[in-house]
Each structure stands twice: as structure tokens, then as C-alpha cells.
């Protein structure tokens, strides 16, 4: 067993119950007390962790039992626990919500893996004793889940709060660790994919400050800390997290990171560094061209649709990406990155904004999600990074569709076992050393991804050196094999 580390998991009876606002407020309040609290988010989320990092002053990490193995989760948490006074985990959806009738991959299962006390956020609109019945049901539904307290949300008036507190403490034997009134306005504005990211929020620090003030006024900060301090030592993983120092950088891999492209798991970038990559951040909105010394490029997800005009206006950068792809630069792109590599993005109102043009397809924004949830993909065709037969686990959340539909189904690299993909049970556009997909992958769940990208970048680097000597345009290894065959 490792040393005890105070930790807490905030969950709820459903999504949209106020977990994120309370998580941010608690992070900021404990930070103001001088405590270093590391945040985590359960599930495949990029936006909430970005807000976590702003509130806590330290990076937030994802914990996902679908994308990661149990020991990977334990190792990741144990590694970061050494650097903190406490850990705060925000659950997703309802406590017991999972993929099947057993609740597989639910927040409750994560709490059991990490032996972490759970505080339940409960919406109390137009209810009193029934709230206690719901909490009692959660307690008995799985007695192994360490429910340790309750936070009341949407409380009407002091008399309402008093009845709720007395009933819950009497029937559930749980402490009430906070009670919030009905707030008149949203602190964190939302749009089609959840909260507006802090990179695009006009006053992110002020929103976090408001959440801190709410937490300090309505939450029992010391009571919550005492509950967190009752957590037992973290269970030990069978295999420790990689601790070797990363090698000296061998290749330069660009990462487009700006307000349009911001969806990157910290572990993905760390995995590239461990394989020998030097990360070079690139801005598709402001840079004129790609850096000339790149050996590879990673374009994550984000909101290219809300930045379509600015991305389209930066014509020189778009053209540099198109030319780099034609010359064989290894490029891996996910979701928003896939859209950027298309011919254009079409907005709901009908406007068409030219993009990089690596692939001859438009991506059309819709009003409803076209793909939302976990994905399972099987590699069925040759591509730069994954051998045929490989099975990949990821997630997708996109409102866009390819045009014309259903796209080039006969040449896409992935068969979609679970999810929507590009269409027709296919995903994964391939062009020379470019692979672009609607699915997001996590490096811990797909450990071959980072080595493959770095290996391809090294091959490209070596070919480029040879081509500069012979004054021949470099050809990608993928095309070279096809030509030789």
C-alpha cells in the first residue's frame, strides 16, 4: 500500500446537476487556503479539465475505465499523488451510469478502484424526504461504493434546507456538507458541446473566482477536507507507471494548440516525449506557415467551426499544411483536426470556409450530434500508424458530417464496431503519411500510438535528409511500399 493521500470524488444523480461548478469552486477555495489539490476528470472530457487547471493552478488528468486498464488508472493517480496535498475527482453523468445493465465503466466503479470517498451532489428542486429516499437507494444499490456525504443543490429557502438536512442525516446517516440556493444566472456559459472552454471565455478567471466565492459561502470546506482525509491508502498497481527519464529528443513534432484546437490529453503529449519527441506548439490562427523543421504534426480536436472564418483567412498557413502533407510529412489528426484537413467547413447557416484541402471533402456542421460516445475501431486497411487487425478504443463527439456522404468507404482505414465514424461503419481517412479520424485516442489505452508517430517522424526525417542530398522530393514510406509492390 502507498502512503495515505486525502482524496474526494464528487458525483451526482445525473449529468447537469452542478458537479463542475462545485468542483471548480472547491479547487479554487482550497487553493486559496494554500493547499495543492490535483484535479481529475472521470471520462473522455477535454473542456472540464481545462477549467480544472485554471481553478487549481495545476494540470488536470482524465481517468477513464473504458480507455484505460485498472492498473493504469492506479499508477497514474499514484504518480500524481506524490506531488499533492490532496486529489479531487469530478465524476461524469450519474453515479451508477455506465455502458450496460451492470454499470460497467461508471463513476461508482472508478470510486471503488481508487477506494475514494464519494460526495453526492443532489438536485433538491420541489422535493424534501424524497431526496433522502434517492440517497438511501444509492447507498443500498451497491454498498461497496464509499458514499461519505451529500451536497444539496437548488435549495429554495432556509426551512427547505432544514428539512432536507434533518431527513438525510436521520435516514441516511450521512453528513450534509453544503447547501446551495438556486443561482439566478449561469456562471459558466454552455454551447453545443458543453461548457465554453476557458480559452474562449471572455473572463475565465473571474468565473472561477465567482465559483470560489460560492464554495466558501455555501460549502463546509473543513468538513469536506475531513472526509477526504479519511480515504485509505491508495491500492498499489501491479506494474508501476514508467519512471525512466525520456531520451534526448530525436524528432520535432508540431502540435497545433490555440483557441481552435485545444483537445489534447496530457498523457498523449507525455507519451510522445517519452518516445523521443520534442513538442513544438503551433498556432493555426496566427502563424504564417508551419515551422520548417517539423518531422511530424499532431492536430487534436477543438472548435474549428467557431473559428472557421479566422482559420480560413490564414491562407498561407493552410497552404503550408497542404504542401507538407503532399511532401509526406507524418500527420495524425482527430475530429476538429480531421475537419481542418478537409476542403472546407460549412456552417449551419450555409457559409463555406476553405480549409487545408488535404482531403477533397467538405465537413458540414449540423444542429445535433452525429457521433457521441465511446468508439471501438478495427484497422482493416494499410495506414501510416496501425497495422491491419489492430483494435482501437476511443471516443467521439461531433456535430459535423462529411460531404458528400457517406465518403470514400472503400478506402477508409477503420471499420467502426461501435460509434458513428465518418459514415457507413467506416472511419480513418488516409493520404500518404496522413491519418485523420473522428475518434479521439488516449495514449494509455492505445500504447502503440506514440511510438508509431515518432517512428514515422524519424523515417521522414531521414528521408528528408536523403532528399536534400539528392535534391529529390521525399516520398512517404507508405507510398514507397505501394510503388514497390
Describe, in plain words, how this protein is organized in 3D.
By secondary structure, the protein is an alpha/beta fold. The chain has 14 helices and 26 strands. It has helices spanning 19-32, 47-56, 70-81, 107-114, 129-141, 158-171, 204-218, 221-229, 266-274, 308-313, 315-326, 336-341, 449-470, 477-484; strands spanning 7-12, 37-42, 61-63, 86-90, 118-123, 147-155, 176-181, 190-191, 194-195, 251-256, 261-263, 277-282, 296-299, 301-302, 331-334, 344-346, 352-354, 362-365, 371-379, 391-398, 400-403, 414-418, 426-427, 429-431, 434-437, 440-441. α5 (129-141) runs parallel beside α6 (158-171).
| The CATH homology group name of the largest domain | P-loop containing nucleotide triphosphate hydrolases
CATH architecture of the largest domain: 3-Layer(aba) Sandwich
The end-to-end distance, rounded to whole angstroms, is 55 Å
Strand order of the largest sheet: 3-2-4-1-5-6-7
- CATH fold name of the largest domain, please? Rossmann fold
Number of domains: 2
Report the portion of residues in β strands: 15-25%
CA-atom Rg in angstroms: 24 Å
Outline, from the CA principal axes?
globular
Overall pLDDT metric: 90
Give the key terms:
Rossmann fold; about 475 residues; about 25% strand; 2 domains; 7-stranded parallel sheet
Compact overview of the structure:
The chain is α/β, with parallel strands linked by helices. The protein is built from 14 helices and 26 strands.
Amino acid at each position: 500500500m502507498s502512503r495515505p493521500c486525502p482524496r474526494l470524488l464528487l458525483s451526482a444523480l445525473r449529468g447537469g446537476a452542478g458537479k463542475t461548478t462545485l468542483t471548480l469552486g472547491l479547487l479554487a477555495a482550497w487553493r486559496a487556503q494554500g493547499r495543492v489539490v490535483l484535479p481529475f476528470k472521470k471520462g473522455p472530457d477535454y473542456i472540464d479539465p481545462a477549467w480544472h487547471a485554471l481553478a487549481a493552478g495545476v494540470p488536470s488528468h482524465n481517468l477513464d475505465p473504458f480507455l484505460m486498464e485498472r492498473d493504469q488508472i492506479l499508477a497514474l493517480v499514484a504518480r500524481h499523488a506524490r506531488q499533492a496535498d490532496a486529489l479531487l475527482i469530478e465524476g461524469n453523468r450519474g453515479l451508477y451510469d455506465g455502458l450496460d445493465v451492470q454499470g460497467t465503466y461508471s463513476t461508482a466503479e472508478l470510486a471503488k478502484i481508487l477506494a475514494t470517498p464519494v460526495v453526492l451532489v443532489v438536485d433538491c428542486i420541489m422535493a424534501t424526504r424524497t431526496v433522502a429516499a434517492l440517497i438511501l437507494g444509492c447507498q443500498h444499490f451497491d454498498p461497496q461504493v464509499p458514499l461519505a456525504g451529500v451536497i444539496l443543490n437548488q435549495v429554495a429557502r432556509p426551512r427547505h434546507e432544514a428539512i432536507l438536512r434533518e431527513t438525510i442525516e436521520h435516514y441516511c446517516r450521512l453528513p450534509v456538507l453544503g447547501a446551495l440556493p438556486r443561482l439566478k444566472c449561469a456562471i459558466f456559459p454552455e454551447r453545443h458541446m458543453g461548457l465554453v472552454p476557458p480559452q474562449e471565455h471572455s473572463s475565465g478567471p473571474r468565473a472561477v473566482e465567482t465559483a470560489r466565492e460560492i464554495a466558501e459561502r455555501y460549502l463546509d470546506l473543513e468538513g469536506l477536507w475531513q472526509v477526504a482525509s479519511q480515504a485509505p491508502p491508495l491500492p498499489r498497481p501491479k506494474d508501476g507507471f514508467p519512471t525512466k527519464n525520456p531520451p534526448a529528443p530525436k524528432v520535432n513534432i508540431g502540435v497545433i494548440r490555440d483557441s481552435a484546437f485545444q483537445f489534447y490529453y496530457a498523457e498523449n503529449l507525455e507519451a510522445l516525449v517519452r518516445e523521443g519527441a520534442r513538442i513544438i506548439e503551433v498556432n493555426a490562427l496566427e502563424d504564417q506557415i508551419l515551422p520548417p523543421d517539423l518531422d511530424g504534426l499532431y492536430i487534436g480536436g477543438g472548435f474549428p467551426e467557431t473559428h472557421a472564418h479566422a482559420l480560413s483567412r490564414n491562407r498561407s498557413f493552410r497552404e503550408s499544411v497542404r504542401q507538407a502533407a503532399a511532401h509526406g510529412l507524418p500527420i495524425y489528426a482527430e475530429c476538429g483536426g480531421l475537419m481542418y484537413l478537409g476542403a472546407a467547413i460549412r456552417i449551419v447557416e450555409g457559409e463555406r470556409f476553405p480549409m487545408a484541402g488535404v482531403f477533397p471533402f467538405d465537413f458540414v456542421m449540423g444542429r445535433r450530434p452525429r457521433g457521441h460516445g465511446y468508439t471501438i475501431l478495427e484497422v482493416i486497411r494499410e495506414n501510416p500508424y496501425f497495422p491491419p487487425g489492430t483494435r482501437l478504443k476511443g471516443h467521439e463527439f461531433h456535430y459535423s458530417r462529411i460531404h458528400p456522404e457517406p465518403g470514400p468507404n472503400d478506402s477508409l482505414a477503420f471499420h467502426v464496431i461501435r460509434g458513428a465514424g465518418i459514415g457507413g461503419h467506416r472511419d480513418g481517412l488516409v493520404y500518404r503519411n496522413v491519418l485523420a479520424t473522428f475518434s479521439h485516442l488516449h495514449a494509455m489505452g492505445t500504447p502503440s500510438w506514440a511510438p508509431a508517430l515518432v517512428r514515422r517522424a524519424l523515417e521522414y526525417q531521414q528521408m528528408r535528409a536523403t532528399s536534400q542530398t539528392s535534391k529529390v522530393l521525399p516520398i512517404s514510406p507508405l507510398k514507397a511500399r505501394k510503388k514497390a509492390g
